[in-house]
């Protein structure tokens, strides 16, 4: 199985790899990759795979049966090729900032309003969060965003460690999503924001909170207690 380099180093921008599988001339598996596959509300990474000066553009990255598959824009890569890889860092860094901001927002929704996150879509220009919340008002959400911004000002570090399934099950707050823990995984990656937040998570995050900038609530939508929605941007 390909080594997912972004799991331990979200700041890795270029690396060498070997092509280990090619399907239909355009779906590439690498022995090592830092290209993040679409998942957890975070879009896939873009960038290039280069072989002997020839550049193959990454148009999609997905995870299928546990393998990270890179769709490239043209045929030419072969099994055994040694290639160099480069992330579209500007794009990825925006996603890292939004993703880390989503942790803070969902932490506050969970702890202060007993709300569960039902959906999260990160984009280049904005992020959407869907959640269930009984006692709802847009003012409340504004107050939560203010609280998140105050935490950002503490510039806490984001760190990674690992826990067993049993340890995770004993702490339901570690998995705030409404959906359950994936089966067949024994060891879970935990993302810590200082001592404020802990989440089971396979995504990419910034190293320190201040990299997020300031969260600004731009829109709220209310379609019933199980269907609230908010949009935010980063400044
Ligand atoms: Zn995360």
Structure description:
By secondary structure, the protein is an alpha+beta fold. The chain folds into two domains: 3-87, Beta Barrel (Elongation Factor Tu (Ef-tu), domain 3), CATH 2.40.30; 92-234, Threonyl-trna Synthetase, Chain A, domain 2 (Threonyl-tRNA Synthetase, Chain A, domain 2). The protein is built from three helices and 15 strands. The protein has helices at 89-113, 138-153, 165-169; strands spanning 3-4, 14-23, 27-30, 32-33, 47-51, 54-64, 67-72, 82-87, 116-122, 127-132, 158-164, 187-193, 197-200, 215-222, 228-234. Strands 2-3-7-6-5-8 form a six-stranded antiparallel β-barrel. Strand 12 and strand 13 form a beta hairpin. Helix 1 crosses helix 2. The longest helix is centred in the middle third of the chain and has 25 residues, at 89-113. The model has no long low-confidence stretch (mean pLDDT 93). The protein binds zinc ion (ZN).
